[in-house]
Design brief:
alpha/beta, Rossmann fold, Hypothetical Protein Tm841, Chain: A,domain 3, 10 helices, 13 strands
């Protein structure tokens, strides 16, 4: 039986303990500050916010390039010569990373690529689903595993409130960002993944405590999320009282497990400190 190795990008914000548990290999994306290139996951997120406070400049990000993917896949094959690689990638609608993986994949056999059309906790939810399928069905054929993952991609739902609209604006990843300009100080936009694109959908007014509770209630009303697992995403600076309230809401709504995921450098560079999000898989 040939071993199947799951891979993804750092933009999935997959917690290290889960990556280790399921042996998911993670390739880093990039953060650029003052012309210096840092690997996402190797740079403390606090350094990004400290840099902004010091310079009033927001770092930029770049995707994993094709050469890096080639080296990444090669290193896995060197370790497991007969393995099959299933790569679950960051949405192609907001980064060139997936296309670069496609370019690199031409050099390899038995390498499957899946565009997750999602980011951070929404992408992590798909990766964890794939890992759990592998755990339950260790002899599954790779084509069948890919079918199962592709079937769950449109069921992964992510919604979040950025911590800083200035970071969100600078990131330039939200397709209808122009509609928010002029009201940036008055609202807290809800950003959702729609067909792989980051789109501002709802607008919340008031303090973060109120906005996050409304976000979760709206999210659970709109989507029939599987009660076995819910993911909460936060960036450094989110108030602990908000975390406690979100845990209460999850329990009130019958979720068996809640996993908190800290936004890494890639996501934090686009959303700022103190952001909050929710992700899960629909039935």
């Amino acid at each position: 039986m040939r071993r199947i190795i799951l891979t993804t990008e750092s933009g999935a914000d997959l917690p290290q303990d889960l990556a280790a548990k399921y042996d998911v290999r993670v390739v880093p994306m990039h953060i650029i500050m003052d012309g210096n290139d840092y690997l996402d996951g190797h740079l403390p997120v606090q350094d990004i916010y400290d840099y902004y406070e010091r310079t009033k400049k927001i770092p930029t990000t770049t995707s994993t390039n094709a050469h890096e993917y080639q080296a990444f896949f090669t290193s896995i094959r060197d370790e497991f010569p007969d393995c099959i690689i299933v790569h679950i990638g960051y949405t192609s609608k907001a980064s060139s990373s997936f296309q670069n993986a496609v370019i690199a994949s031409q050099e390899f056999e038995d390498l499957f690529l899946i565009d997750a059309l999602n980011v951070t906790g929404g992408l992590a939810a798909i990766v964890c689903y794939a890992a759990e399928v592998l755990e339950k069905e260790p002899g599954i054929e790779p084509e069948r595993l890919v079918e199962k993952i592709e079937a769950v991609v449109p069921k992964s739902r992510l919604a979040f409130i950025p911590g800083s609209l200035e970071f969100l604006k600078a990131g330039g990843r939200v397709s209808n960002m122009a509609s928010l300009i002029g009201t940036l100080l008055k609202i807290k936009p809800c950003i959702e993944l729609k067909d792989g694109k980051l789109v501002s959908t709802k607008k919340y007014r008031g303090k973060m405590q109120k906005a996050t509770e409304k976000l979760v209630r709206d999210y659970l009303e709109e989507f029939n999320i599987d009660r076995k697992q819910l993911y909460f995403i936060y960036s450094i600076g989110l108030d602990e009282s908000i975390k406690e309230r979100m845990d209460e809401l999850a329990e009130e709504n019958g979720f068996e497990n809640v996993r908190w995921i800290q936004a890494g450098g890639m996501i934090s560079t686009h959303s700022g400190a103190g952001g909050f999000g929710v992700a899960g898989l629909e039935h």
